[in-house]
C-alpha cells in the first residue's frame, strides 16, 4: 500500500517519465534498419516491412515501377517459394497484405504473437533474396494491369491521382498506378530493388510486440541487407493548375485543392481542425444533412450530392482541398458552395463551430492510434522522422490551436494557387477560375 | 532426373571420368541427335506437366532457338539427310538450357505435393 504522500510523488513523476519516453531515439539495427513497436496486451500482433520506396522515388522514365515492386512482395525468394510462404502463413493462421503509398511500400503480416519471428525472417528474405524471375513477372504484370483498369474506372481514384499530379508534377505527383505506357522489365525491377531495398530506407514496424525483441529479430533477419546510402527524396514543390478529365461517370466530380502542410507540423493540425469544421462527413446513417456547412450544402442540393473536405499530409508537403460530386447540372452549385464555406471560414470562425471541429479533429486523431493499420502507418512515419510521439502528444498539439489560427489558415490557403480537377462530361462542367 | 545414378561420383573421380568420357562421346554420336542439329534438351519428352511448365518459363529467345532447331531437324528428316561437317551440332553448343528449369519446376511440384499431403506441421 502506498501512503498518500508517496502516491502523490508517483503522480508527479509520471509526466517526466512520459517526456523521457518521447525523447527516446528510434531503435536501429547495425545496417540502419529502423525498428518501432507498440506493445499491446492483445494476443494478435502484426509486423510490417515499410520501405521508403513509394511512387515518389520512381525514376522519371520508369513510371509505375513501385506498383510492380509492391506486387512482387512475397514471391519466390532464395529460401522459400511464393507457394510455401502462402501455405505456411495459412497453416499458422496469418494474413499477408501489401500496400503502396506515395512515400512507401508496405508489406504486412497479421498473426499471433508467437509467429512474429517467422514473418520477420520472411521479410528479411523478401528484401535480400527475392528472385524476380521472368515467369512470375508475367503474372505480376497482369495483376498490375487489372489493378490499373480498376483504378481507371473509379472516378474518385482518377480525381485524386490527377490532383496530386497537377499539384506536385513529379515526386509526390507520380501516380500510384502504373501508366499504360509503363515499360518495365525484370532488370529494371532488380535495379529498383537494389537501390531502394536497403537498410537506411527500411523500417520494421510491429504492433503487439516488444520493441527490444523485434530489434533483435531484425538484427538477425536483416543482417545481410546492404546498408545503402541515405539519399534524401527530391524536395517537393507545389505548382497548382487545372486538369479536365473526360469520363463516363454518371456524376460530375470537382476537386479544388490548395497548398497544405506537411504531416505532423502545427499547421497540419490546424488544417485538420479546418477540415472537421467544413465537414461533409455524415455521422448518422442515412441522414440527409448534418451540422457542418458542407453537409448542409450537400443536403440542399440532394440527389446523392456529396461535398467533403480533405487534408493530405506527406513528409514534406500537404494538400488541403474540397471535393464535390453531384449530378452534372448541380455540381457547379455544389463546388461553389464548398468554396464559399472556405471563404466564410477565412473571414471568421464562431466559437461554437470551432468547439465542434476541435472535438471531431481530436477524436479522429485519437482513433488513428487505435486500429492496427493506422498505428502501423503512424509508427512508420515516426521511424523515418526519427522521433516518437504518442496519441496524447498529438492531442496536445491539436488543443493548442485557436479559432483565429483556423481562419488565418483558410485565408492563407485561398491565397495559394488552386489545383482544380474536374471529371465527367467535361463540356458541362465548370472551369476552375469561375469559383473565385 | 530419375532413377539411380552414379554421375556425380564419376565426374568427381579423375580416373573414372577419363575412362568413361570416350564411351559417353561414342554413345552421344551413336544416338545421332546432334546430326539433326538438336541439343540434348530438345529431345526430352515434352508431354508431362513439369516439362510443359518448364518450357513455358523459357525466355523468348530460347523458345525461338528451340523451335528453329526442331524445324531444322524436321527438314533433315523429310529430306532423308543428316548434317555433315561443321553443320553437326558442336559439343560446346549442346547447352542444357532446359534442365535447370525442369529441376526448379520439379522441386516446386514436389513441394506442392508435400503440402497437399501434410499431416502435421512444425516451423
Automatic annotation (TrEMBL), chain A:
Keywords: Electron transport, Membrane, Mitochondrion, Mitochondrion inner membrane, Respiratory chain, Transit peptide, Transport. Residues 183-360 form the Peptidase M16 C-terminal domain. GO terms for molecular function: metal ion binding. Residues 36-177 form the Peptidase M16 N-terminal domain. It holds the Pfam family Peptidase_M16_C. One of its GO terms (cellular component) is mitochondrial inner membrane. It comes from the Eukaryota. It is found in: Mitochondrion inner membrane. The keyword Disulfide bond does not apply. InterPro entries: Metalloenz_LuxS/M16, MPP/UQCRC_Complex, Pept_M16_N, Peptidase_M16_C. Its main location: mitochondrion. It is a peripheral membrane protein. Belongs to the peptidase M16 family. UQCRC2/QCR2 subfamily. This is Cytochrome b-c1 complex subunit 2, mitochondrial. It comes from Modicella reniformis. The gene is QCR2.
From TrEMBL, chain B:
It comes from the Eukaryota. Keywords: Electron transport, Membrane, Mitochondrion, Mitochondrion inner membrane, Respiratory chain, Transport. Transmembrane segments: none annotated. It is found in: Mitochondrion inner membrane. SUPFAM superfamilies: 14 kDa protein of cytochrome bc1 complex (Ubiquinol-cytochrome c reductase). InterPro entries: QCR7, QCR7_sf. It is a peripheral membrane protein. It holds the Pfam family UCR_14kD. GO terms for cellular component: mitochondrial inner membrane; respiratory chain complex III. One of its GO terms (biological process) is mitochondrial electron transport, ubiquinol to cytochrome c. Component of the ubiquinol-cytochrome c oxidoreductase, a multisubunit transmembrane complex that is part of the mitochondrial electron transport chain which drives oxidative phosphorylation. Belongs to the UQCRB/QCR7 family. PANTHER family: CYTOCHROME B-C1 COMPLEX SUBUNIT 7, UBIQUINOL-CYTOCHROME C REDUCTASE COMPLEX 14 KD PROTEIN. This is Cytochrome b-c1 complex subunit 7. The gene is QCR7.
Amino acid at each position: 500500500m502506498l501512503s498518500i504522500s508517496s502516491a502523490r510523488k508517483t503522480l508527479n513523476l509520471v509526466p517526466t517519465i512520459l517526456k523521457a519516453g518521447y525523447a527516446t531515439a528510434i531503435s536501429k539495427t547495425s545496417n540502419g534498419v529502423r525498428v518501432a513497436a507498440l506493445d499491446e496486451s492483445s494476443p494478435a500482433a502484426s509486423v510490417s516491412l515499410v520501405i521508403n520506396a513509394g511512387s515518389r522515388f520512381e525514376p522519371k522514365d520508369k513510371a509505375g515501377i513501385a506498383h510492380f515492386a509492391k506486387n512482387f512482395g512475397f514471391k519466390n525468394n532464395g529460401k522459400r517459394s511464393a507457394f510455401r510462404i502462402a501455405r505456411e502463413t495459412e497453416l499458422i493462421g496469418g494474413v499477408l497484405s501489401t500496400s503502396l503509398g506515395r512515400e512507401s511500400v508496405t508489406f504486412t503480416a497479421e498473426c499471433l504473437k508467437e509467429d512474429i519471428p517467422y514473418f520477420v525472417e520472411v521479410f528479411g528474405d523478401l528484401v535480400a533474396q527475392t528472385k524476380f524471375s521472368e515467369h512470375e513477372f508475367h503474372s505480376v504484370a497482369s495483376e498490375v494491369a487489372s489493378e490499373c483498369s480498376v483504378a481507371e474506372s473509379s472516378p474518385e481514384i482518377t480525381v485524386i491521382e490527377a490532383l496530386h499530379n497537377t499539384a506536385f508534377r513529379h515526386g509526390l505527383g507520380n501516380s500510384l498506378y502504373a501508366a499504360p505506357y509503363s515499360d518495365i522489365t525484370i532488370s529494371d525491377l532488380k535495379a529498383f530493388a537494389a537501390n531502394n531495398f536497403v537498410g537506411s530506407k527500411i523500417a520494421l514496424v510491429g504492433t503487439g510486440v516488444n520493441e527490444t525483441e523485434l530489434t533483435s529479430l531484425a538484427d538477425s533477419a536483416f543482417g545481410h541487407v546492404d546498408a545503402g546510402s541515405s539519399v534524401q527524396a527530391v524536395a517537393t514543390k507545389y505548382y497548382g493548375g487545372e486538369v479536365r478529365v473526360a469520363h463516363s461517370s454518371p456524376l460530375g466530380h470537382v476537386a479544388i485543392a490548395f497548398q497544405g502542410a506537411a504531416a505532423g507540423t502545427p499547421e497540419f493540425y490546424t488544417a485538420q481542425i479546418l477540415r472537421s469544421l467544413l465537414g461533409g462527413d455524415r455521422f448518422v446513417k442515412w441522414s440527409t444533412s448534418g451540422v457542418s456547412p458542407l453537409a448542409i450544402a450537400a443536403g440542399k442540393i440532394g440527389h446523392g450530392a456529396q461535398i467533403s473536405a480533405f487534408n493530405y499530409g506527406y513528409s514534406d508537403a500537404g494538400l488541403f482541398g474540397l471535393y464535390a460530386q453531384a449530378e452534372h447540372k448541380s455540381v457547379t452549385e455544389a463546388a461553389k458552395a464548398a468554396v464559399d464555406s472556405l471563404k466564410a471560414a477565412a473571414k471568421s470562425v464562431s466559437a461554437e463551430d470551432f468547439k465542434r471541429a476541435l472535438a471531431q479533429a481530436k477524436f479522429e486523431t485519437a482513433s488513428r492510434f487505435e486500429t492496427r493499420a493506422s498505428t502501423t502507418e503512424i509508427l512508420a512515419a515516426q521511424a523515418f522522422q526519427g522521433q516518437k510521439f504518442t496519441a496524447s502528444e498529438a492531442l496536445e498539439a491539436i488543443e493548442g490551436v485557436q479559432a483565429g489560427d483556423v481562419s488565418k489558415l483558410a485565408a492563407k490557403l485561398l491565397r495559394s494557387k488552386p489545383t482544380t480537377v474536374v471529371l465527367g462530361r467535361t463540356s458541362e462542367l465548370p472551369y476552375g477560375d469561375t469559383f473565385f | 532426373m530419375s532413377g539411380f545414378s552414379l554421375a556425380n561420383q564419376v565426374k568427381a573421380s579423375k580416373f573414372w571420368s577419363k575412362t568413361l568420357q570416350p564411351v559417353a562421346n561414342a554413345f552421344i554420336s551413336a544416338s545421332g541427335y546432334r546430326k539433326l542439329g538438336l541439343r540434348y534438351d530438345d529431345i526430352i519428352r515434352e508431354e508431362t506437366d513439369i516439362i510443359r511448365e518448364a518450357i513455358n518459363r523459357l525466355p523468348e529467345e530460347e523458345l525461338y532457338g528451340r523451335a528453329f532447331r526442331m524445324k531444322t531437324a524436321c527438314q533433315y528428316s523429310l529430306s532423308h539427310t543428316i548434317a555433315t561437317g561443321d553443320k553437326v551440332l558442336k559439343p560446346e553448343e549442346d547447352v542444357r538450357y532446359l534442365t535447370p528449369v525442369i529441376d526448379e519446376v520439379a522441386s516446386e511440384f514436389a513441394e506442392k505435393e508435400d503440402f497437399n499431403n501434410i499431416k502435421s506441421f512444425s516451423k
